Amino acid sequence: MRKNSIKNTRINGEVLKELSNIIRGEIKDPRINPMTSVVAVEVAPDLKSCKAYISVLGDEESQLNTIAGLKSAEGFIRMKLAKSVNLRNTPEIKFILDQSIEYGVNMSKMIDEVNKNIKHDDGKDAE
User: Fold this and answer.
1) By CB neighbour count within 10 A (0-12 exposed, 13-18 middle, 19+ buried), where does 38 fall?
2) Coil vs helix vs strand at 96
């Protein structure tokens, strides 16, 4: 199976959906932030491994605790994934912290601040 085949894309989507459901509803670890989302999933073509990009809304300590909690619950998550997604092999999941959403929010705030300052400066020039 090629990396960007239709089958691989479909498997990535299905694993992403099920992984989101498992993390949101079935894990009871207090270290995992309730505002945790699965941004993307890349399942290897041989179905042996999987990279799950996780976004956590919160401070850096909360992010690190969430990743640690997910890594400790990896066996449980893999078992639940095997029951819900019918694949030849259940991939070994590697959780990677994705900060793209947080980066986007910060950039948006900075752009809004610059636009506000430009409008504020234009108002002074008119006087």
Assistant:
1) buried
2) strand
Single pTM value for the model: 0.77
Laid out side by side, the sheet with 36-43 consists of: 36-43, 49-56, 92-97
> What pLDDT does residue 121 have?
74
Q: Are 97 and 57 contacting, i.e. CB atoms less than 8 angstroms apart?
A: no
**Residue 37 forms beta bridges with which residues?**
55
Element (H, E) at 42: strand 36-43
Task: For residue 7, give Cα distances in angstroms to 1, 47, 87.
Answer: 8, 11, 12
55 in helix, strand or coil? strand
Which ranges constitute the DSSP H helices of 26-99? 60-72, 74-84
Looking from the CA of 71 toward its CB, the CA atoms found within 13 Å total 10
Q: What are phi and psi of 90, to 5 degrees?
A: -90, 120
Q: Tell me if residue 106 falls in helix, strand or coil.
A: helix
Q: Which pLDDT belongs to residue 125? A: 53
Q: Greatest CA span in the chain, whole angstroms?
A: 72
